[in-house]
């Protein structure tokens, strides 16, 4: 094994990633925001470290070692988790693995990948680790504190990173070996993400995690606290402090070897390919009463959505906004009157957003062929609208009626909601194709961490959501008893006239928006050139 | 519409901002012939094909496909088949679904489409894999599926951009045979490539594009004998000679000669 080769591999990999990242404005912006928040956090944590150091020196804070043991548990846990996540999602492999593995040994390659990851983590961790160690030593007023804290923190980060690497590679090995895992990995990932989301927003999570942190703090990992505070806190003992260094000296090479083994197992195995063997009967059937080109375009959209649902994950995002209302309904056992119109909005929004918000970009590499066939804009745009409406209208209508009845909406309001549940998705389809053609998104973007597809552009999302909201609001507000009461008071019309006029305005707006958007999209497609 | 040419262009040009991709291209390709469009990377082959298939608007000149101006997009699209450089496939669809989709875009009657798709899948040795997702295909299988979608509606003129790239020798031979068959059925084939033997074997006429200019054109045999001495050279020699202008002193002698 040559260290030089490993360094070379790491340098190439880093260069490659740097270029890939800085080549995209969105990524650069994200990094900028990250750096800004990171700087604020470093500032906050360092300030805290300074005052804690001062407190310990003045004897105001006692039992610092016990608290530091918890920190000694949290730091590597956090780094391990983050690294493992990165490794599972993207970075546990080389960019040009085939070529690389035939020119350097796998130890050198894995060395290179580990170095790459350490460099990335190092570039993130160095500043905070230095700052915290430094300000703490300043607060204590003893310069020799600095090397102790620094060593302890650096070793914890290093251990965490290596451990995370091994864990991540272990998970990838499982995925590579289990057909079941390989087939459902995106679904499992989405599920874990949702669980995480629920866990973070739930108050009970803290009490579940604390015992775990306590346990790790009581383990030899806690000895790093003794090392860090060796010169600061009289309670810090010599034996654990030395023990921490010994652990690091033993564990670092051991975990590195383990990671290397796991990497070799992963890279030289031929991963199971769930799709390889699978045969699927064609789903390109006709759709009754729909012209052939239009039907095929709708079918194509459905097949792609069913077999690659991750492409449409953005459609679920607004559900997070609806979450409190759904939760309230479940907890109280009664449906709030705001829910039916909100569901109508969401249903309409989703049926337009799913298939119609990026007509040109969604074609991907097929676009040149689509444009080289005589398929007309009416067929193409109509097929995309159809794909969303066939599913969106019945689902939205059913949701609206069920929740409308359950929430005890009056008859007139119920009719309003029902009519809106049909009109708004239709408007949504037209608005979506218009906005999507106006702001196409051609290149792939990250819709979730590590998952890249062509998602609609943010401008398309914005324009679409705005116009849809304006269209739907008149009918929606009059469906809600409170708002309606207010409107009746202000406008002085009777309740039914108020409802009817709200509905009429929405229907009118829906008709106009759908027609304008659809016509614009059809014309644009018919006149579309690649450059 | 009694033009003897399937593809005609006069002074066809395309510039991107300040870069000239294709300049003053004059083409005349007879019905039922195979035209080999040679040129190094970046010569302007793809740009030319995209203009002829109505995907790009020329910045100058004009062209006709089967007697129809490329400004009449619908009429041209009825007459052509097109294989782009990148296989035009959705990863989530199966090969068969992809072909049924394109047949549907062209509104081919179902019975006719099925018959064509099945016979072409068979011909290209893809029938075994037609029900697997495109995402599991090798590069060659994708390329073959792409070629089938370009010819399944029996177009009058077929444009193939680098049809043999990524194909194993066996598949490459199938492609050559299919091109020969197409020509025999009076289909015009316009194919771009930088793989010379393909053109040498198949093309009735070869055009060499360099920096947006047609620097040599003629039947492969004639091109090969064009040297002053009358010796037979390989097509590769011709290609290298006419496309090395940048390395020579700027008297342009080589270019004039080759034309
Ligand atoms: N969309 C574009 N914008 C700017 N320049 C382009 C674009 N597409 C192609 N070019 C340039 O036009 C020239 C010809 O490209 P292309 O037709 O792809 O060549 P070929 O297919 O022969 O490799 C190249 O110099 C290329 O950089
Ligand atoms: Mg090209």
TrEMBL record, chain A:
Q: Which organism is it from?
A: Halomarina rubra
Coiled-coil positions: none
Keywords associated with the record: Membrane, Transmembrane, Transmembrane helix
Name the record gives this protein: ABC-2 type transport system permease protein
TM ranges: 28-50, 70-88, 109-132, 144-171, 183-203, 237-259, 312-332, 338-358, 379-406, 412-438, 458-479, 499-521
UniProtKB/TrEMBL annotation, chain B:
Question: Molecular function terms in GO for this entry?
Answer: ATP binding
**Start and end residues of each stretch annotated as Disordered:** 239-259
Annotated ABC transporter domain ranges read 7-236
Q: Which CDD domains match?
A: ABC_DR_subfamily_A
Name listed for the protein in its UniProt record:
ABC transporter ATP-binding protein
Keywords linked to the UniProt accession: ATP-binding, Nucleotide-binding, Transport
Pfam families, A to Z: ABC_tran (PF00005)
Tell me the superkingdom of the source.
Archaea
Fetch the InterPro entries from UniProt.
AAA+_ATPase, ABC_transporter-like_ATP-bd, ABC_Transporter_VariousFunc, P-loop_NTPase
